[in-house]
Write a structure and sequence with these properties.
By secondary structure, the chain is α/β, with parallel strands linked by helices. The protein is built from 13 helices and 14 strands.
Length: 464
C-alpha cells in the first residue's frame, strides 16, 4: 500500500463543533469561521469523471525532457501559470490554468477499472482490488447516496444525479454507482444520453389528456395499496421502490424541477460551445442541475472506459483506456472534445457566479504507465500505455479552492509521486467537507449498523 498524505487535519472535536454549527446554518458565520476556507463553502459538487484512465503525461503533467519512449509523441505548451506546461492538444485549458488547482500527486495501488472506479465513486477500496466486480447490495454506496442519507432534506427531489451513464467497464456495469448497502431508495438518479433530450423523464411524464385530479386519485389509490402491502410484509425492496417512486412523483410534479432537465431552454450558441454530443450536453445539463440546487452531480464524460473497440470512428464511444493507439486516440478523439467541453463548463460556471459555491472535480480512476509500448492482447497497431495508479493528476476548482495552483509533483518520468501523495479517499473527504458534512462522521444502514462517511483526510493543500 502506498503511504497516504499525513498532514495535520482538523481535530475530530473541531469537526464535531463545525458539523453542529453547519446543521444550525452557522458554519459560515463570522464568529464561527472554519479553519479551512473550503469547509461548508459548496452548495454543490460537480464531478467530471474521465473514465478509463487519463494519461497524466499526455494531458496535465507532460515530461518534455524525458526520453521519447516516456514523453510520447506530443509536445507541450505554456499555460497561464508561469513555468507550468500542459499537453499541446489542451490549449483552452492551458489558458485557464489560473482558475483551478491541479493535483499532480494522486496515487493508489488498484490497477483494474472496475475496482478502481469503485474506489473513486465510493471513496472506499473494493474488497477485491484490481478486479472488475459487478454491483452488489453489500457494496459501499456511491458518494451521492451517502449525501442523501446524511442530508435528506433539499429543495430538489434528488440529492444526486448521474449523467451519461451508467458507467461501463468496458461492457459490464461498474460497481460503485448505486445505493449499495443503503438500498435503492438512496440511489442517484441515473440518466443516459441527454444530447437529444432526457428521454427517461419524458417517459415518466403524465399523459396530457389525463386531468390532474385523476392523477392524484390514482396516486392515492396506489399509496393505499402500498400501506396495506407493508402491513402484510416488511419488504426492503418494496420500501425502496416506494421511496424511489415518491421521488419520481415529486420530480414530475414540480415544474421547476422538470425545467432543470430541459436543455432546449439554453441558447443554441451556448449548447454548441459545450459541444452537441453526449459529453458536452451532459456537462451543460450538469450546470443546469447545479443551478437548480442539486448537491451532487456526476458526469461520466465517457460512458465506457473503452468503447472504441466497437467502432473506432465514433468519438462518443471513446474512453481513456488507451492500451494501444494512444496518440491517435487522444489527438483525434479524446483531447479536442475534452479541452473544448471542460473549458466551456468552467467558463459558464464562472460567468454565472456558480463557481464560488460549486466544487468542481475532474478525475478518473487512475493514470497511464510512463513507458510507451505495444500490447498484443489489445486492439490497435500502434503503441499505447498500460494502467498506472502509482501517480496521476486530477483538477479541482471553485468553492474556496485555490486558483492557479499546482499541488504535488510526480518524478521526472511521471511514474511515481515526488511529494507526499493523495488518495481517492482524500478526494471523497474533501468533497464531503466542502458540502459541510463531517467526513469523520458516520451514517447508518437500514439495520442500524454504523459506517464511516470517509476513510480519507481533507486535502488542505487545495485551499492553502
Amino acid at each position: 500500500m502506498l503511504r497516504l498524505l499525513t498532514d495535520d487535519g482538523i481535530t475530530r472535536r473541531e469537526w464535531l463543533r463545525l458539523g453542529t454549527l453547519a446543521g444550525l446554518g452557522l458554519a459560515s458565520s463570522g464568529s464561527a469561521a472554519p479553519r479551512l476556507r473550503g469547509t461548508g463553502k459548496a452548495k454543490s459538487v460537480l464531478v467530471v469523471f474521465a473514465s478509463g484512465g487519463q494519461s497524466q503525461i499526455d494531458t496535465w503533467d507532460p515530461k518534455p525532457d524525458a526520453p521519447v519512449e516516456v514523453r510520447g509523441a506530443f509536445g507541450s505548451i505554456g499555460t497561464s501559470l508561469p513555468g507550468v506546461r500542459f499537453c499541446e492538444h489542451m490549449p483552452r485549458l492551458a489558458a485557464r490554468a489560473d482558475r483551478f488547482t491541479l493535483v499532480r500527486s494522486m496515487s493508489h495501488d488498484d490497477l483494474d477499472h472496475g475496482s478502481a472506479c469503485y474506489l473513486a465513486l465510493t471513496g472506499h477500496f473494493h474488497p477485491q482490488k484490481s478486479s472488475n466486480p459487478t454491483p452488489k447490495p453489500t457494496d459501499y454506496p456511491a458518494l451521492g447516496a451517502v449525501i442523501r442519507r446524511v442530508r435528506p432534506a433539499g429543495k430538489f427531489p434528488y440529492q444526486a444525479v448521474q449523467l451519461n451513464g451508467p458507467l461501463l467497464v468496458p461492457e459490464i456495469v461498474a460497481a460503485g454507482q448505486y445505493g449499495g448497502l443503503l438500498g435503492r431508495a438512496y440511489e442517484p438518479l441515473m440518466l443516459a444520453d441527454v444530447s437529444d433530450g432526457v428521454r427517461e423523464l419524458a417517459a415518466m411524464s403524465p399523459r396530457g389528456e389525463l386531468p390532474g385530479v385523476r392523477v392524484s386519485r390514482r396516486r392515492g389509490l396506489l399509496d393505499s395499496l402500498d400501506r396495506y402491502t407493508r402491513r402484510l410484509e416488511d419488504d426492503r425492496a418494496s420500501l425502496d421502490l416506494d421511496v424511489s417512486r415518491r421521488q419520481a412523483h415529486a420530480l414530475l410534479s414540480a415544474s421547476g424541477s422538470r425545467d432543470a432537465f430541459d436543455l432546449s431552454r439554453e441558447p443554441m450558441r451556448l449548447r454548441e460551445r459545450y459541444g452537441m454530443h453526449r459529453s458536452g450536453q451532459a456537462c451543460l445539463l450538469a450546470r443546469r442541475l447545479v443551478e437548480a440546487g442539486v448537491p451532487y452531480v456526476t458526469v461520466f464524460f465517457n460512458p465506457s472506459v473503452r468503447g472504441q473497440d466497437k467502432d473506432a470512428t465514433q468519438t462518443d464511444l471513446y474512453g481513456w483506456d488507451t492500451h494501444n493507439d494512444i496518440f491517435d486516440s487522444l489527438r483525434d478523439h479524446l483531447l479536442p472534445r475534452f479541452d473544448h467541453t471542460f473549458s466551456a463548463l468552467l467558463d459558464d460556471l464562472e460567468q454565472r457566479g456558480l463557481l464560488e459555491t460549486t466544487l468542481v472535480v475532474c478525475m478518473g480512476e487512475f493514470g497511464r504507465a510512463p513507458l510507451v509500448a505495444l500490447e498484443k492482447n489489445f486492439v490497435g497497431s500502434s503503441p499505447g500505455r498500460k494502467h498506472w495508479g502509482a501517480v496521476y493528476s486530477i483538477v479541482m476548482a471553485g468553492a474556496g479552492v485555490c486558483r492557479g495552483k499546482v499541488l504535488g509533483a510526480s518524478d521526472r518520468l511521471g511514474a511515481y509521486p515526488a511529494t507526499p501523495p493523495y488518495n481517492p479517499t482524500d478526494v471523497a473527504a474533501t468533497m464531503f467537507s466542502a458540502l459541510g458534512i463531517d467526513p469523520a462522521g458516520q451514517y447508518r444502514d437500514a439495520l442500524d449498523r454504523p459506517y464511516a462517511i470517509s476513510e480519507g483526510k481533507v486535502m488542505r493543500g487545495v485551499y492553502e
